[in-house]
Amino acid sequence: MSYSEAAAAIVAQIEAIPEWAQVRARHAQTDLDTATLTQIIGAAGDLAHDVLAPFNRTGDAAGCRLVDGRVQLAPGHHAAWQAYREGGWTTIDAPAAHGGAGLPVTVHAACEELVNRAAPAFGMLPTPMRCATMVLMRYAAAAIVDEWVPRLVDGSWAATICISEPDAGSDVGRVRTMATPQDDGTWRVTGEKIWISFGDHDLAPRIGHMVLARTPGGAPGTAGLSLFLVPSDQDGRRNGVVVRRIEEKLGLHASPTCALGFEDAHALLVGTEGRGLPQLFAMIVGMRLSVGSQGAGIAGAAADLAAHYATERHQGGKPDRPAVPIASHPDVRRMLQASAARAEVARGLVLTASVLSDLQDDDLDAAALVAWLLPITKTFCAEAASLCADQAIQVLGGAGYTREWPAEQYLRDARVLAIYEGTSGMQALDLVMRRVLGDEARPLRAFLTRARHDARVGDGTALATMLDRLERAAASLDRTSAQTVAYPFLQLGALATTAWIATRLLRHCADLKVARNARHWLKLATIQSAAEADLVALGEDLLTQ
After folding, report:
1. Residue 139's CB: how many other CB atoms inside 10 A?
2. Model pLDDT, residue 167
3. Can you tell me the distance from the alpha carbon of 208 to that of 227, in angstroms, rounded to the nearest whole number?
4. Average model confidence (pLDDT) for the chain?
5. Do 350 and 388 meet the contact criterion of CB atoms below 8 Å apart?
6. Is 318 a residue whose pLDDT tops 90?
7. How are beta strands 237-238 and 241-246 bridged, if at all?
8. Nearest CA-CA partner of 232 in 257, 258, 210, 217
9. Could you identify which of 37, 124, 134, 254 might form a hypothetical disulfide with 59, taking C-beta atoms 3.0 to 4.6 angstroms apart as the criterion?
10. Can you say how many angstroms the Cα of residue 8 is from the centroid of all Cα atoms in its chain?
11. How far is CA 104 from CA 28, 141, 198, in A?
């Protein structure tokens, strides 16, 4: 599938989402009809094909280097970033008041999938910039917003998110970085941070580091954390931010993952002291949806690569006749159909979650659905990328294991998606402890209500079966056993949710290939959900004593 074909499939999926009509109505000043959507998303596909895909291979081979204390990016990154900025792609869903295009999150997600299809390492840079912008707009003082937000929106400055530390990765309550108040109202930050994407680079003259740190006298644990903006430079001089190293990684080689030291660095408090972690939650939708877009992009690229190769590669058949395309062999067809179906519903998850996020500010049902969808979208799409990449290598055989073909890079780049922004296990605990056993189960109930309605309209037998399994599994959970079976419950929830996506696609999407993939996914999900339900039913007995 070409980028133009992928863009057309994305447009078809968006228009098949029933709630999209509400989003269009809220953006009536921009007539987001089929022609407009096709133009915008098609242009993103052109950028991905013409600029980002060529950079992806060279950037992966060259990687990044630390030279004289600064990060030197891969050759070609500057030109690709300039093209991205000049095309206005940093501005898509930012408010017009700050120089953005003011388009829905859905349009951004659609374009982001194509960017990640072409070059997921490149797509790592704009995400923290966009998410930092969300936090600053909501919580920062007016002077900070005026100085930083327009420059982050247009991509002239950059941002990072600095949370993790040695021995305090996901266990955020153990963060030790300290911030000390100064007489002039500013702060000084000292500590070590790790896993910082694009922690340093020269694509922008200034980088704003969003740093979680403790303040004197603050409470222990997460309650004592505050959020600070630490500029990379101050008054024309480098601030006390030092790149300790660039991590040597399995994949995403063109995206520098840095360990940063903050040495008495000048800093500005963002929002309220002691509220740093809750304030960062303002970006959680954006971050998890971006991981979903990464997963959907890689999954789609891998599935399409396998399909193309299987059509062109000839092997087998009757020995007295020409060899046949391997796509004609049943086992290869099995892999191709499973990958295509998985990639299709991964895309549907991201787009549906994005549409609902565009409605959530004043629609309680949409907000509850987003709460249900986020951990599922993040995890399912992350795992879809790895699974589809693995299947692509299997279809290509020995060729897939070589660097002549991009399948091996898809697998390397995809593997981290299930780790950062919360591992799959953490997403599972978030789903069961907060979305099912907490908040009066509003997210679960909102999903079941919406999905059961869709199952009743037309042939929703398969979906109804999976919803029954999900509801029984949820009723069996308690706070002790839930921690043991959280992951299989997340898998069950993901199968039921993607079955809902597939059912809606079958009913509303006119694209025949999309419909075929949706039908195949319903077949697979129905069978797989029974096994996941059985695992959940084991409770604590899932672990052998």
Report:
1. 20
2. 84
3. 12
4. 96
5. no
6. no
7. unpaired
8. 210
9. 254
10. 21
11. 11, 25, 26
Residues 502, 521: contact at Cβ < 8 Å?
Answer: yes
Nearest alpha-carbon partner for 416 in 120, 67, 198, 105: 120
Check residue 63 and give left, alpha or beta (phi > 0: left; psi -120 to 50: alpha): left
Q: Record the tokens describing residue 278, joined without a space.
A: 């809750």
Catalytically annotated residue among 19, 112, 408, 421: 421
| Maximum C-alpha span of the chain | 88
- Predicted confidence at residue 284, as pLDDT, reads 84
> CA 253, CA 247: separation in Å to the nearest integer?
10
* Residue at token pair 């309550």: 173
pLDDT at 113 over 90: yes
Q: What is the identity of the amino acid at 32?
A: L
For the chain, give the number of residues.
545
**Helices (H) and strands (E) in the chain — how many of each?**
18, 11
Could you give the CA distance from residue 527 to residue 495 in angstroms, rounded to a whole number? 10
Residue 232, token pair as written in the block: 């990379």
SS3 track for 401-422:
HCCCCCHHHHHHHHHHHHCCCC
Tell me the mean pLDDT in the region 184-195.
97
Among 248, 256, 10, which Cα is nearest to 115's?
Answer: 10
Q: What are 298-309's pLDDT values in tens digits?
A: 999 999 999 999
pTM of the model: 0.96
CA distances from 461 to 161, 261, 454, 509 (A): 44, 56, 11, 19
In the block, residue with structure tokens 């900025």: 85
Bridge partners (DSSP) of residue 241 are 262
- Among all chains, which residue has been given the structure tokens 């030790």? 176
Whether 532 is catalytic: no
User: pLDDT tens for residues 219-248?
Assistant: 999 899 999 999 999 888 999 999 999 999
In contact, 113 and 297? CB cutoff 8 Å? yes
Closest to 343 measured CA to CA, from 335, 332, 354 = 335
Average pLDDT for residues 6-33, to the nearest whole number?
95
Is 473 within 8 Å of 539 (Cβ atoms)?
no
CA-to-CA separations, 536 to 166, 412, 435, in angstroms, rounded: 34, 31, 16
